[in-house]
Amino acid sequence: MQRLLVTVVALIALVAGVVIYNNLPKPQPKALVYDPPRTLQPFVLESSLGHNVSNANLEGQWTLLFTGYTFCPDICPTTMADLRQVLPKLKQYTDTPVKVWMISVDPQRDNVKRVSDYAVFFGDEFVGIRAEHPQLYPFVNDLGLMYSIPEEGETDYLVNHSAAIVLVNPAGHRQAIFKAEHIIGEIPTVSMEQLATDFSIIAPTFH
Question: Residues forming the annotated binding site?
Answer without folding.
Answer: 72, 76, 161
